[in-house]
Structures are given as structure tokens and as C-alpha cells.
Amino acid sequence: MVAVSFKDVWKDYGSGAVAVKELNMNIKDGEFVSLLGPSGCGKSTSLRMLAGLEHISSGEIIFGDKVVNKLPPKDRDIAMVFENYALYPHKTIYENLANPLRQAKVPADEIKRRVTEAAELLEIEHLLERRPQELSGGQKQRTAIGRAIVRQPQVFLFDEPIAHLDAKLRARMRSELKHLQYKLGVTTVYVTHDQLEALTMADRIAVMNDGVLQQFDTPQQVYENPANSWVATFVGEPGMSLMEMEMTSVEGDMALAFGSETIKLDQKSAARLAAAGKINLLVGVRPDKASVSLEPLPNGIQCEIYSRQLLGADVLVEVEIGKSRVRAKADTSFGGNVGTPCHLNFLSENLYFFDAEDGKVIPQ
Amino acid sequence: MTVTTSSETHPALSDQDWGFSTIDRPPSAINPPPSRMFYVYLAAPAIALLAVITIYPFLWLIYMSFHKVGFGSSSDIFVGFENFSRLFTDTKYIEGWGLLLKYSAICLSIQVVVGVALAVVLNNSRYEKILVTLFLMPMMVSPIVAGLLFFYLYNGTFGWYHWIFQSLGFLGETSILGSTKTALYGIIIVDVWQWTPLITLITLAGLKRVPQDQLEANMVDGAGSISNFFNVSLPNIYPFLLIAILLRFMDNFRFIDAILALTGGGPANSTRLLPVYLFDVSFQFFKLGRGGAIALTLLIVTIILGLILVRVLEDPTRKKALSGDPDN
Predict the structure, then answer these.
(1) How many CA atoms lie within 13 A of A184 on its CB side?
(2) Looking at the complex, does the CB of residue B317 fall below 8 Å from at least one CB of chain A?
């Protein structure tokens, strides 16, 4: 068990392709950290640099108090689970699990004990004599995790380990992985593009985009206090809607101008925006904090329905106001369909404010 | 035809919009499936050609091996198994087998070890493309030319290799091909020079298909590059290597062009491998019946050894493992 840090880490593939820019991150001992971002954001590269499978262009990667930049993977005491499991097809499941221990020259009876232990923990002890291609996706995935835990490493690295499982199995593996990590207490870095995985499993989430770390905080903070408009729209499902608005005043009170409409501000938001002194804003609202109605609402904004999607328990209504589109959740009894005029309403204390220029959140 | 456009039916689903509904023949009547004979006619020329160039000579070989083949006006005499039974007392025949097996075993061992090692070094090296092109060159040289080339290199008066080996103290007063002790190694060097690149090329193709994630997983498991080769790469290139070994093994039993150019079987029969002896018997002494018997035994043994090689080297579970789709 060890703390892991990135210190000013850059990854440059040459010819101007920069995969990771100035990454700074301190992962605590025993922490479960998720690297979240869209494909190509540098999250896998960061993980591979931790593993030693990728050289770093500059900066330092530190395990505990040791700089490991130059160490090959075998000397880092890590275990990694790959997206495609990377099991050895020519070896049985037992041999697959035993491989890390054999590499470490652990005595045979000790190998047997630890492999059996890991297999029991993952409920794959009846598969030990089979070969990977005779296993289902879920069983392969367990074998890959088993291979990671037998050697009792300092750090677990997961590269989208459950991305290829079906939805039901994925939900089950999420809770099992979380449980396993809690029980073993091993520092874990988990790469995913699925925000649900990050939000449900991680102690802290590192959100990345374009090789830049956007925010590194607890799931709750990332969801409730996104650092910028990009994180705000990326995290949360269905995602937050952004509207371009301008500061204005109505009868001496601060308000937001949105097309031809004005939205009154509560005192707290008004004070916050006054302190920031920005005119052009990106204003975000989460679908569950916005409401639509066919009847006129007090402070309601006139709009037209763009699409209506049934989510099961409720309906996601996307409305069009000028060139902006805003998503709102409504009751399944909501009657409007595409093209119906309607009214959108939200409370100003539920809004998120970002600077329109750089997308950064307006400080509280 | 009336168009039924009720409120439930989408207009595109009415019959009128679809051209094929007016065709009254079933599609199979327009394009009937060809009869079986059609395929036979198509394949006939190829089968006829095959019959003329392989099946007829093979049957003729069997015929010859049971006859004393006559020339000119004298006719063939049926001799039963006499051609075969005489082989058991023919010391040159038995020695030929010994030499062939020794030659084959040494050539194969060197070629596999050196060929695979070269492939590993070449794989992902910066100069891979240039070096592979250079390595192809010996293979493009005709074996007889390769033989002549080495004939000069081995020459006791001006040959470079002769000079090198003599300087290293491997040779006494004689030249490489002039001594019964070294002549066999002289022809082995030519075969290794010419055919190691084949093993390298096939292995290289195999190495390109070794899954990167398995290599990486093994590295994370704690393996260095040597363990990575034996643990992941070698099992993955195994089927490729098996094909390369089989090809070379069969070639060694057939190709004698370079040997004929270099030694012609000498000195003192020290390079008279069985196929060389076969050539001598058939085309120097024109004993076509005995030659046929030798050829037939050589063929049968080649097939048997080839099957044994496949059986020994091919682990069925391993084969299944490697042919399986990794994602299923």
C-alpha cells in the first residue's frame, strides 16, 4: 500500500501530439481514484505511465517517496487489469493466475495456496483447469482481476475493466470491485469513460479532457460543484444544459437576460455574480431542477418542445428557446409532444454560473 | 390497383410503390442455381493439368520401382520387390540416409535458433524494413548459383571463407570441400545462409501478431524481456514456427542443386546424401528401376517423418487456444 503522485507530468508523442499536459495529482494511500473522461482525453495514457508501459516526457511519478520514472513495470509492484483482459490463451486459468507469482519466484506450494484463495474469493475455483477461450466474458474478467490480486501489489491499475460486460453484469461487478478494493485496502486507479462507474465506485474522481486535468475531487463535489462548464456537462446523466445569458438589471435588481426574457436572481446568486463582475455568462441547469408545463408559469420562459424521451419513471423533455436547447424532467403524464409550445421554469438558486469566456465556474 | 392508405398504413407500404411486386416469376427462375456438372466442367482443365504433371509421373515412378527399366529397343522387365530388397544391402543407400538425417538435423537446428533470434532482433527495430529486404536476397538467388558462389568462397587458393576458416584454425592443409571431415559442414553453411531468412520472415510475421496486451500484462506480472519471449511470444508464434520447420524439413529432403554444384557427393561420398545418391543412380548410371525404389522410400519416409513432426510439435489444446477468437 502506497501513495501515488503525478508531479508536472507531460506526455508528448512528438510532432505536436500532446497526450497529457502538466498533470499534478496526489493519490492517497488506499484511495480509490477514478480517471474519467471521453476517449482520447489522456486517461489511459496516464494509467500506462503509472504502470511503466509508457515513458513520461517530463515530470515525476512518485510511489510513496520513490521516484519511479525509470523503473520498468516489473519493479513497480503494481497489478493491472486490461480492457480486453489480456489473459494468456495458451495457459489454463490456474497458470494465468499463477503467472505473476511464478515471475516473482514464489515457492510452488505458496503459489497453490494463494491462487486457490484468490479463485475462491472471485468464485472461479471450478474453472481453474479450463483455458480462457472456454470462459464467458464475466468469468474472463474475474480471472483478470484474480491475476491482479494474487500478488498483493502496492497499486491496482484498472483500464476500463468492465466496459465489455453486459449492463446487468456491469452493475454487479461495480459493487463487487468496490467491495474488493475496500477489503484489500490497496491504492487503486481506475480508468473509465463511464461516469456512472466513476461516481458509484471512486473515493475521488479525476476528470480529464484534452490531456488536461479538469477537476480532482469527491464524486459529490464533482457533481454538485463542477469546476468548469465542461465538467458540468460531462458529469451527470442526462447532462446539464447550458444557456448563454447576459447580466442586466430589472427595476434596479440584478437579473439575467436570456434572449428576450429576463430571469430574476435570488440574493445569494446576485451577490455572487456582482462580485465576479462578468457580463457574459454560461448558465447551466440540471434537468431535474428545471420544469416544463403546457400552462403558463410564473417567471416561466416561453419555448417549444424539441423532443420528448421516455426514461421510464419520468420523461425527458428537450425544449428550444432561440438557439439554446434545455433539458428538463417531467412527469410521465406530461402531454406535450414535438412542436408544442410550452413554458420552462427553474429557480435561480439551482443554476450553475460559468464565465462565458473560459468556462470557469463563478466563485461562490 | 387501388392504393390502400388507411390511417394505420404508411403510404410507402402500399404495393404500388414497389417495383418487384409486378414480377410474376420467382427470383430463382431468373437466375437458376448452376448444376453440379457446371462445377465439374469448371474444374476439369485444372484437374487434367494436375493429372498430367503430378499423378501420371507418380504412377510411373511406382511402375519403374517394380521393373528393370530398359532403354531403346529393350523392354521393361518386371522384377517384383527386387529393387527394394537390394537397397538393404546397399551401403551407399544406408550411408545416404545417415548423412541426410545428420545434414537435415543440423541445418534445421541452426536455422530455427538463428532465424528466430534474428526475427526477435529485427522486430520493431528501426532498420527493420531495410534489413528484411537485405535478408530476402539469399532466398532470391537460385540454389545452383548459391552453390557456385560458395564454391568460389570455399576455394583453397583464393576463397575468402577458406582464408577465414583457415585463419581461425578450423582447417588443416585441405580446403573445406576437399576434406571428408568438413565437406558436409560446407554444404550446411550454404543451406543455412540461403534459408535462415525464410524462418526469420515467417517468425517475424508471427511476432507481428503477438497481442500487445498479453506482452504488457506479462510485463506488469513481473516479467523481463527474456521471460516475455518464452512466456508469451513463443507460444503465440508456435503455429508459424511449425509451418516454417515443416517447409525447411521437406526442402532439405529434396533440394540438392547447391550440393551438386559444390561437391557432387564427394569427397569420398562424404556429402552423398540420399537424394544425391538417388540422382546418381537414376541419371548417372541410368538404373531407373533402382532409382524409382529409392525415390519411393524417400517419399514414404518424408511423409511419415512429416506427420510425426506435426504430431509431436502440435499440442491440440494449444492449437485450439490459438485459433480461438480472443474476444469470445
Answers:
(1) 25
(2) yes
